[in-house]
Design a protein that fits this description.
Helix content: 40-55%
CATH superfamily of the largest domain: 3-hydroxy-3-methylglutaryl-coenzyme A Reductase, Chain A, domain 2
Largest sheet: 9 strands, mixed
CATH architecture of the largest domain: Alpha-Beta Complex
Number of strands: 9
CATH topology of the largest domain: 3-hydroxy-3-methylglutaryl-coenzyme A Reductase, Chain A, domain 2
Shape: globular
Number of helices: 12
Radius of gyration: 22 Å
Length: 351
């Protein structure tokens, strides 16, 4: 018997989103046990409503990847195999087309170590996040290559060069999922009135905390305060594979003081989201995706792109609110105490 684990969920917003995918005003669902996340994201979302363009979300790339491993007789044979793969891409695209209507081979990258050949294939997968679709296509490609390329043998259908649900540099460099850049320019009066801080203070904290702090911690292609919080809440509410927040939370926050106005940006290069596939037929997920406008009759891939920019804008709203709070001593902890411990702390202890 399949059981369902209930996670508290709220809709927060509304937020305004523009850009190259959608121009919308929407609330967003967040499922989380960390209840301060809701008012935090709500604060950033409401600020977006005060700016004509809101959060400008630019989708710059999209692909799902699967890497396979083959063993060659030696490094020279592995190199010759790579040359054959490159020369036969059109043939390999035909192999992939037989795997489904919505999967398309975009290209590949490779690494050779000793006699081991790692082939990382890039696919477009329509409105699906594409894990299973990419694996199915990679399996067909691997079978075809083993039958037609001399000197190689099976190693593994997944070679850890994908890279799936692991924090690595390769995903940020080569891309995996939807790569979305979000930007918001907040006027100085709004920064003071709604965030209770200044653009200079946020920009300075971003450098010292997100950039220098992450560098000292040994972060991998990541410089942000808490992308994972917003991603997990959004992923659980919309039926995504929540483990993908591992690579999804690798992103970079940029903040600039522009004569008192705040330029704020979050680059989220590994958003792995879809609107069809496993988990999307659950009642609450279907309701949430419908309310987000991601069940419409659009060209293949457009609903998933819409979902990705909404998700990325949600990340920006939460990131902005948290960094603003952290410029003020005690604000973050007061919010957590007030929202998460009211039943266990006396009124005199909460100021």
């Amino acid at each position: 018997m399949t059981l369902v684990a209930g996670v508290p969920m709220n809709w927060v917003g509304p937020m305004r989103i523009t850009g190259n995918v959608a121009e919308i005003e929407t609330e967003v669902p967040l499922a989380t046990y960390e209840t301060p996340l809701w008012p935090s994201v709500r604060r950033g979302a409401r600020i977006s409503m005060t700016v004509p363009r809101g959060v400008v979300a630019t989708l710059v790339d999209e692909r799902m990847t699967r890497s396979v491993l083959v063993r060659a007789d030696d490094a020279h044979t592995a190199h010759q195999a790579v040359r054959q793969v490159d020369a036969r891409l059109d043939e390999l695209r035909e192999v992939v087309r037989k795997c489904g209507r919505f999967v398309e081979l975009l290209g590949f990258h490779h690494e050779i170590t000793a006699n081991l050949l790692f082939l990382r294939f890039d696919f477009r997968t329509g409105d699906a996040s594409g894990h299973n679709m990419a694996t199915l296509a990679a399996d067909a490609l691997l079978t075809h290559l083993l039958a037609t390329v001399p000197g190689i043998a099976y190693g593994s259908i997944s070679a850890n060069y994908c890279t799936d649900k692991k924090a690595t540099a390769v995903n940020g460099i080569l891309g995996r999922g939807k790569n979305v850049v979000t930007e918001l320019v907040v006027p100085r009066d709004t920064v003071r009135a709604r965030l209770h801080t200044t653009a200079a203070a946020i920009a300075e904290l971003n450098v010292r905390k997100n950039l220098i702090g992450t560098l000292l911690a040994g972060g991998i292609r990541s410089a942000n305060a808490h992308y994972a919080n917003m991603l997990l809440g959004f992923y659980l509410a919309t039926g995504q594979d929540a483990a993908n927040i591992v690579e999804g939370s690798q992103g970079v926050t940029v903040a600039e003081d522009r004569d008192g106005d705040l330029y704020f940006s979050c680059t989220v290069p590994n958003l792995i989201v879809g609107t069809v596939g496993n988990g999307k037929d659950l009642g609450f997920v279907d309701d949430n995706l419908t309310r987000l406008g991601c069940r419409a009759d659009r060209a293949p891939g457009e609903n998933a792109r819409r979902l990705a920019v909404i998700c990325a804008a949600t990340v920006l709203c939460g990131e902005l609110s948290l960094l603003a709070a952290q410029t003020n001593p005690g604000e973050l902890m007061r919010a957590h105490v007030r929202l998460e411990r009211p039943a266990t702390i006396g009124a005199d202890d909460v100021r």
